[in-house]
Q: What sequence folds into this?
Protein backbone atom coordinates (compact mmCIF):
# COMPACT_ATOMS: atom_id res chain seq x y z
CA UNK A 1 0.00 0.00 0.00
CA UNK A 2 1.28 3.44 -0.98
CA UNK A 3 1.73 5.72 2.03
CA UNK A 4 1.20 8.96 0.02
CA UNK A 5 -2.27 7.86 -1.12
CA UNK A 6 -3.27 7.01 2.45
CA UNK A 7 -1.85 10.32 3.68
CA UNK A 8 -3.86 12.23 1.02
CA UNK A 9 -7.07 10.38 2.02
CA UNK A 10 -6.46 11.20 5.71
CA UNK A 11 -5.93 14.90 4.85
CA UNK A 12 -9.06 14.90 2.74
CA UNK A 13 -11.20 13.28 5.45
CA UNK A 14 -9.77 15.61 8.13
CA UNK A 15 -10.52 18.69 6.03
CA UNK A 16 -14.00 17.36 5.26
CA UNK A 17 -14.74 16.78 8.97
CA UNK A 18 -13.46 20.27 9.88
CA UNK A 19 -15.61 21.87 7.19
CA UNK A 20 -18.71 19.99 8.39
CA UNK A 21 -18.04 21.08 11.99
CA UNK A 22 -17.61 24.72 10.96
CA UNK A 23 -20.79 24.60 8.87
CA UNK A 24 -22.76 23.08 11.73
CA UNK A 25 -21.56 25.78 14.12
CA UNK A 26 -22.27 28.66 11.76
CA UNK A 27 -25.53 27.44 10.27
CA UNK A 28 -27.03 25.79 13.32
CA UNK A 29 -29.78 27.37 15.38
CA UNK A 30 -27.70 29.13 17.99
CA UNK A 31 -30.65 31.16 19.29
CA UNK A 32 -29.41 34.39 17.71
CA UNK A 33 -31.91 36.93 16.57
CA UNK A 34 -32.49 37.26 12.86
CA UNK A 35 -30.83 40.35 11.50
CA UNK A 36 -33.13 42.76 9.77
CA UNK A 37 -32.71 45.75 7.52
CA UNK A 38 -34.95 48.78 7.99
CA UNK A 39 -35.97 50.97 5.09
CA UNK A 40 -37.22 54.37 6.30
CA UNK A 41 -39.20 56.78 4.17
CA UNK A 42 -40.22 60.21 5.43
CA UNK A 43 -43.04 62.11 3.74
CA UNK A 44 -44.02 65.65 4.72
CA UNK A 45 -47.44 66.95 3.78
CA UNK A 46 -48.98 70.28 4.74
CA UNK A 47 -52.49 70.58 6.11
CA UNK A 48 -54.23 73.96 5.83
CA UNK A 49 -56.42 75.00 8.75
CA UNK A 50 -58.73 77.93 7.92
CA UNK A 51 -60.47 79.64 10.81
CA UNK A 52 -62.49 82.78 11.19
CA UNK A 53 -62.53 84.47 14.56
CA UNK A 54 -65.89 85.92 15.66
CA UNK A 55 -66.37 89.64 15.06
CA UNK A 56 -64.85 91.78 17.76
CA UNK A 57 -66.67 94.89 18.90
CA UNK A 58 -64.37 97.02 21.05
CA UNK A 59 -65.48 98.89 24.13
CA UNK A 60 -64.65 102.53 24.79
CA UNK A 61 -62.08 102.90 27.57
CA UNK A 62 -60.27 106.21 27.34
CA UNK A 63 -61.24 109.55 25.87
CA UNK A 64 -58.78 112.35 25.33
CA UNK A 65 -60.26 115.85 25.17
CA UNK A 66 -58.60 118.92 23.66
CA UNK A 67 -59.52 122.42 24.79
CA UNK A 68 -58.15 124.32 21.83
CA UNK A 69 -60.64 125.91 19.47
CA UNK A 70 -59.63 126.79 15.94
CA UNK A 71 -61.25 127.86 12.77
CA UNK A 72 -62.38 124.61 11.26
CA UNK A 73 -64.71 123.57 8.46
CA UNK A 74 -67.55 122.04 10.46
CA UNK A 75 -69.13 120.31 7.45
CA UNK A 76 -65.83 118.63 6.58
CA UNK A 77 -65.23 117.57 10.17
CA UNK A 78 -68.75 116.14 10.49
CA UNK A 79 -68.48 114.36 7.13
CA UNK A 80 -65.17 112.87 8.18
CA UNK A 81 -66.55 111.99 11.59
CA UNK A 82 -69.51 110.04 10.23
CA UNK A 83 -67.60 108.36 7.39
CA UNK A 84 -66.55 104.74 7.71
CA UNK A 85 -62.94 103.85 6.95
CA UNK A 86 -61.90 100.26 6.34
CA UNK A 87 -58.33 99.21 7.14
CA UNK A 88 -56.94 95.87 6.01
CA UNK A 89 -53.74 94.43 7.36
CA UNK A 90 -52.04 91.04 7.24
CA UNK A 91 -49.20 89.26 8.98
CA UNK A 92 -47.76 86.43 6.91
CA UNK A 93 -44.97 83.94 7.49
CA UNK A 94 -44.34 80.38 6.28
CA UNK A 95 -46.91 78.65 8.52
CA UNK A 96 -49.33 81.41 9.57
CA UNK A 97 -51.31 83.97 7.57
CA UNK A 98 -53.22 86.40 9.78
CA UNK A 99 -55.72 88.88 8.24
CA UNK A 100 -57.18 91.87 10.13
CA UNK A 101 -60.06 93.99 8.74
CA UNK A 102 -61.06 97.04 10.80
CA UNK A 103 -63.99 99.37 10.15
CA UNK A 104 -63.66 102.76 11.91
CA UNK A 105 -66.35 105.45 12.18
CA UNK A 106 -67.06 108.24 14.67
CA UNK A 107 -63.56 107.83 16.12
CA UNK A 108 -64.37 104.27 17.20
CA UNK A 109 -63.71 100.82 15.85
CA UNK A 110 -67.07 99.78 14.45
CA UNK A 111 -66.09 96.20 13.70
CA UNK A 112 -63.05 93.99 13.44
CA UNK A 113 -62.80 90.76 11.46
CA UNK A 114 -59.91 88.41 12.13
CA UNK A 115 -59.10 85.44 9.92
CA UNK A 116 -56.11 83.18 9.88
CA UNK A 117 -54.80 80.33 7.83
CA UNK A 118 -52.49 77.95 9.65
CA UNK A 119 -50.35 75.53 7.64
CA UNK A 120 -49.25 72.61 9.79
CA UNK A 121 -46.60 70.22 8.47
CA UNK A 122 -47.55 66.59 9.01
CA UNK A 123 -44.55 64.27 8.91
CA UNK A 124 -45.22 60.63 8.17
CA UNK A 125 -42.41 58.21 8.96
CA UNK A 126 -42.80 54.74 7.50
CA UNK A 127 -40.43 51.99 8.55
CA UNK A 128 -40.37 48.83 6.49
CA UNK A 129 -38.52 46.03 8.26
CA UNK A 130 -37.04 43.48 5.90
CA UNK A 131 -36.07 40.23 7.54
CA UNK A 132 -32.69 38.88 6.53
CA UNK A 133 -33.53 35.25 5.75
CA UNK A 134 -31.41 32.35 4.69
CA UNK A 135 -31.00 32.04 0.95
CA UNK A 136 -30.09 28.97 -1.07
CA UNK A 137 -28.46 28.97 -4.50
CA UNK A 138 -27.63 26.23 -6.95
CA UNK A 139 -25.43 26.51 -10.01
CA UNK A 140 -22.48 25.09 -11.89
CA UNK A 141 -18.77 25.60 -11.44
CA UNK A 142 -15.88 25.40 -13.84
CA UNK A 143 -12.21 25.94 -13.05
CA UNK A 144 -9.19 25.34 -15.15
CA UNK A 145 -5.67 26.33 -15.98
CA UNK A 146 -3.13 25.87 -18.75
CA UNK A 147 -2.56 22.32 -17.58
CA UNK A 148 -6.21 21.37 -18.03
CA UNK A 149 -9.59 21.15 -16.38
CA UNK A 150 -9.54 21.60 -12.59
CA UNK A 151 -13.23 21.24 -11.72
CA UNK A 152 -16.53 20.85 -13.52
CA UNK A 153 -19.79 20.16 -11.75
CA UNK A 154 -22.83 21.40 -9.84
CA UNK A 155 -22.46 23.65 -6.79
CA UNK A 156 -24.69 24.54 -3.88
CA UNK A 157 -24.44 27.86 -1.94
CA UNK A 158 -26.05 28.84 1.37
CA UNK A 159 -26.18 32.46 2.61
CA UNK A 160 -27.16 32.59 6.27
CA UNK A 161 -28.72 35.39 8.32
CA UNK A 162 -25.30 36.71 9.38
CA UNK A 163 -24.43 37.49 5.74
CA UNK A 164 -21.96 34.64 5.46
CA UNK A 165 -22.03 32.25 2.53
CA UNK A 166 -20.90 28.65 2.27
CA UNK A 167 -20.47 26.72 -0.94
CA UNK A 168 -20.19 23.02 -1.73
CA UNK A 169 -19.48 21.55 -5.14
CA UNK A 170 -19.17 17.99 -6.37
CA UNK A 171 -17.77 17.39 -9.82
CA UNK A 172 -15.00 15.93 -11.95
CA UNK A 173 -11.46 17.03 -12.65
CA UNK A 174 -9.51 16.77 -15.92
CA UNK A 175 -8.86 13.03 -15.42
CA UNK A 176 -12.59 12.44 -14.73
CA UNK A 177 -11.97 11.73 -11.07
CA UNK A 178 -14.48 12.90 -8.44
CA UNK A 179 -13.63 16.27 -6.89
CA UNK A 180 -15.21 18.10 -3.96
CA UNK A 181 -14.94 21.87 -3.48
CA UNK A 182 -15.73 23.98 -0.42
CA UNK A 183 -16.11 27.74 -0.39
CA UNK A 184 -16.53 30.29 2.39
CA UNK A 185 -17.59 33.93 1.94
CA UNK A 186 -17.92 36.76 4.43
CA UNK A 187 -19.65 40.02 3.66
CA UNK A 188 -17.41 43.07 3.55
CA UNK A 189 -19.30 45.87 5.27
CA UNK A 190 -18.66 49.21 3.57
CA UNK A 191 -21.08 51.28 5.70
CA UNK A 192 -19.42 53.68 8.09
A:
Amino acid sequence: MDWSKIKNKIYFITILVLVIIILLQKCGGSGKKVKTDTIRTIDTTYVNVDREIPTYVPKWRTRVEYDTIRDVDTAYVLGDYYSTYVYNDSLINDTLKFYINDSITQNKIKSRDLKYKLTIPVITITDVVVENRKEYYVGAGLTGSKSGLGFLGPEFLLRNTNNQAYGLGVGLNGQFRPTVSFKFYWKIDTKK
